[in-house]
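Why does residue order matter? Because the sequence determines the fold. Keep that principle in mind as you read this record.
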Amino acid sequence: MSLQIRISWPTGHTTATIDETPTSKALVGVLPLSSTARTWGEEVYFDTPVSAALEADARQVVEPGTVAFWTEGDALALPYGATPISRGDECRLASPCNLLGALDGDPHILATVRDGDPIRVELVAD
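Structure:
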């Protein structure tokens, strides 16, 4: 089973397909949520009211467009390119993160998110 979420900010929006995991279930349970976007290299992340333990398949290096949950910061992490600790052009997160799913479409739309932008996440109705 997978769900679709919509992520919106002042200059754009995207959707993501989320797999069923313990962390994604907790996240869906608090939607819709509003937060403040932060940027770290080519990654957008933002606080959530969810707290989760690291899952068995957590990874630090992921594909662009991965929807990840940073357990150390209780934050959703959306990498679309290199971060300050990347080696080459890989997407290297700050630490291992739980994998929730992937953005639908080109992840580089996230380049239009500015640090401090209001950001909203909501479930897409069937």
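The two ends are 13 Å apart (CA to CA).
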